[in-house]
Structures are given as C-alpha cells and as structure tokens.
Amino acid sequence: MPASPEHPLSPATVAVRAGRPPHEPDQPFSVPITLASTYVAGGDLEYGRYGNPTWAAFEDAVGALEGGRCLAYSSGMAAATSLLDLVALGDKVVVPRHSYNGVIVTLDDLELRGRLSVTQVDITDTAAVVAACEDAALVWFESPTNPALEVADVPAIIAAAHDAGARVVVDNTFMTPLLQRPLEQGADLVLHSATKYLSGHSDLQMGAVVTRDEELYAVLKGRRDVQGNVPGPFEAWLALRGLRTLSLRVERASANAAELARRLAGHQVPTEVRYPGVGAMISIVLPTPDQADLLVRATSLWVNATSLGGVESTFERRRRWKSEPTSIPDGLVRLSVGIEDVEDLWADLEQALDGLAVGG
Ligand code: PLP
Q1: Is residue 279 a contact partner of residue 175, using CB atoms and an 8 Å limit?
Q2: Which atom of ligand 1 is nearest to the CA of 78?
Q3: Cα 319 to Cα 321: distance, rounded to the nearest angstrom
Q4: Between 148 and which of 48, 98, 109, 293 could a Cys-Cys bridge form, CB atoms 3.0 to 4.6 Å apart?
Q5: How many helices and strands, by DSSP H and E, does the chain display?
C-alpha cells in the first residue's frame, strides 16, 4: 500500500484498504472466495491445505494492521495450540491465572501429560511476573485479561521475558490492533481469536497469529501445512469483510462501554465494576450468583451468550462454566458492549438491575 515512513497510513485506513486485489482494470474490488482443494501444479499453492488466495488477503490485512506476517487458523484455539506446540518438551510456560479459559485448560492438560510445566501468575503483580520469567521458555499473556480485565505492564514483562531468553505471545483479542500493537512493543507473536472483534459479527470461527520473526513464521506455516488447522475460504472472506469496519466498530463500542461503565459505577446493585478504561469489555460483580443469573435473563437487548466482540451486546455469568477458576467471583458478569445506541443499551440494563434491587 502507498505509505511512506513520514506518513504511515492510519490503522483505520489500513483496515479498509489492505488485502485487496491491485487497482487495475477489471480487477474486482474485493478478493473473491476461492473454493479449491487443489491447484494446477507448478505454482506456489499446490494444495488446499497449503494456501488459499482468500485467506491470503485476510492475512495481508491483519499482518498490515499488527505490523508483521500473519497466518490464519480455523479458530483462535487452533492458533493457540499451534503456538503452544513451539515449546520444547519440559519447558516452562508463564501465563496469567486469568487467561482465556481454553488456554488455561489446554496448558493444564499439557502439564498433566508431562509435556511442559506451567507457572500461573497474577499479571498485575509485575515483580512476581518478572521473577517467574527467569527460567521460562514462553511467556503468554493477555492484557486486559479475560474475564477479570486486569491490565499488565506490557513493556516490563516483554523485557523481562527477553532477558530470560523466553519468547512472548500476546493474545490481543480484546484490544485489536487498533488499541494495542504488541509487536511494536517487542512481543514475538500476537494471537487473535478472529472470531471476535476482527470479524465482528458473531458468524464465524477463525484465529490468527502475527509475527515479525521469519524463522518462526516458517516453522508455523510448515506445521499448519501438514496439520491442516486452516480456515475455510468463506470464513476468511467474511472475516475480511468484517475487518473493513473494525475501526468504526471499535470506536463506537468503546464509546458505549466508557459511558456504560460510568453509569454502572453509579448503580446500587453491582458491588464492583471492572473497566480497564479502553476497549469495549466490562465485568461487573453482583452480590450473589443467583442475582447474576437473574440479570442475564431479565433483558431484551442484551443477549445471554458466551463469546464477545460482535456488533451486538452480549453478557454472561462466567462461573457458569465449570472450568472457570474459582478466583473469578461467582457473581461476575462479563459484558461485551456492542454498537447499538447507548441509551437503548442502558435502559435495558438499568431496568434489569433495578428489578434486582427491588426483588432483593
Ligand atoms: N483468546 C481469547 C481472549 C478469547 O476470548 C478466546 C475465545 O473466547 C480465544 C482466545 C479462543 O478463540 P476461539 O473461540 O476462536 O477458538
């Protein structure tokens, strides 16, 4: 894309313009969906598991946004397990105790089977994280964490990990490359559940990894070629279509979240409102799990559903999942704020909270 070092394109522009066919007569404006299990031999693609022009366009766009080379996967967890596979037998992985639950469950399973060792940390306790990095091979974190919404000292942790010779993976799903670009801060690898904000419409599952390290890229690409954890072309096309509006969606959802967090903090029912001051995720704590269960059933706009990052507002009591750690309060409800009108969202939430106050 035409950008110079003096005038780099803004991420909002990159999200719209990256990963398009060349501007030449008769080229389509958007990349078509290529449905192919195989290609005529002699080129770069050869077989459907090795590459696809529709994923390639998605990868170009996400790579341009994060500032590295991207590989697309069939889900965020498919991407995550590929990254965990980079760790050698017996190596130590440092992870926040409140990382995305699927990652924690996978790490626990790998540890149980003797594949690696795991040290869980409180990601807000930078000194403890730095100490844990000392003999680690991989430091993996999210900031803010899901669903506790704790914020890490990203540069300090990356520096400590690198001093120890460890690689750093940052799961940037909650922030998106519009609000945080970990590769620019020195991370080795960025992970996305593209199921969430990048695609943004709750209609597909995809994952993405981005790196500036050519060697790591080649290892991951080689493994994806044989392991086949690749996305479908239609999903990649939809994800790229969704990505075009990422900037507008993030802007609107973030503004809604800031306003809702302010109003929630003034409401009598939640005992705690967790909002990191950026992004569109909020967690509130209700006095009892029963009240949390009542709340998520008492709204008409807010949908009681897992997942996040879509245009529609959703929420759920996280401890309804048996694998969620007990350090997450039983009455914690995680809200994914969408792009609806903020007054409509508040009216729906407020009447449900008021009902709890009356009902006790
Ligand atoms: N990372 C985070 C922060 C998530 O919230 C999720 C899913 O909720 C994942 C990774 C896993 O992504 P997927 O559901 O696309 O496999």
Answers
A1: yes
A2: 16
A3: 5
A4: 98
A5: 12, 12
pTM strictly above 0.70: yes
Contact 168, 189 (CB under 8 A): yes
196 is catalytic: yes
pLDDT digits (tens, 9 = 90+) for 256-272: 999 999 999 999 999 99
- Residue ranges making up the domain that contains 135: 11-243
Distance 191 CA to ligand 1 centre (A): 9
State the CB neighbour count (10 A cutoff) for residue 109: 10
22 and 164 belong to one structural domain: yes
Contact 137, 166 (CB under 8 A): yes
Instruction: Judge whether 49 counts as a catalytic residue.
Output: yes
Residue 60 designated active-site: no
Query: Where among 205, 221, 243 does a domain terminate?
Result: 243
271-290 pLDDT tens trace: 999 999 999 999 999 999 99
Q: Are residues 354 and 272 in the same domain?
A: yes
